[in-house]
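Exam revision sheet. Question 4 asks you to relate a sequence to its structure. Input first:
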Amino acid sequence: MAEKIKAFCSWSGGKESALSLYMAQQSGFEVTSLLTMANEEGTHSHSHGFDSSVLKAQSEALRVPLMQRKASWQTYEEEFMKAVSVIQDEGICAGIFGDIDLIEHRQWVERVCSALGVTPILPLWLQDREELLRKFIKVDFKSIVIATDSRFMGEEWLGREITGKGWPIG
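Answer key, structure tokens:
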């Protein structure tokens, strides 16, 4: 049996991070670290503004260690690259990212990973968002809505478990 490829997962704490982690693991990757970029105080994630305690709880539930790196928006890329360099010493040669369709972010991921000699893996790239939510529900993750984007979902969704019942997915 071939040895699994070791990877880190760029972790926002959101459903796309969870689904990309799951899909990478199902494809044979050994994800040995969740990498989260936090604000300068280390209290909240840059991506969704989640409290660091939420990300730590997710890491514990997934049994995958969390590496949280503090950064300003000005030092984000530099700190991200430093963090990846540290975990590369553990044999990491790939990074898992939950991006779906933001080409600018994909280009950033590819540029940064190339500079580090890491292969970027984007298992959700260009997949239909509603279909991804259906996959997320089918995998049977336990997920509670703790933040919403008012362009898509109002505050009435906060605190609800994502179960597939009553969700706005056509």
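Marking note for examiners. The chain has a mean pLDDT of 87.
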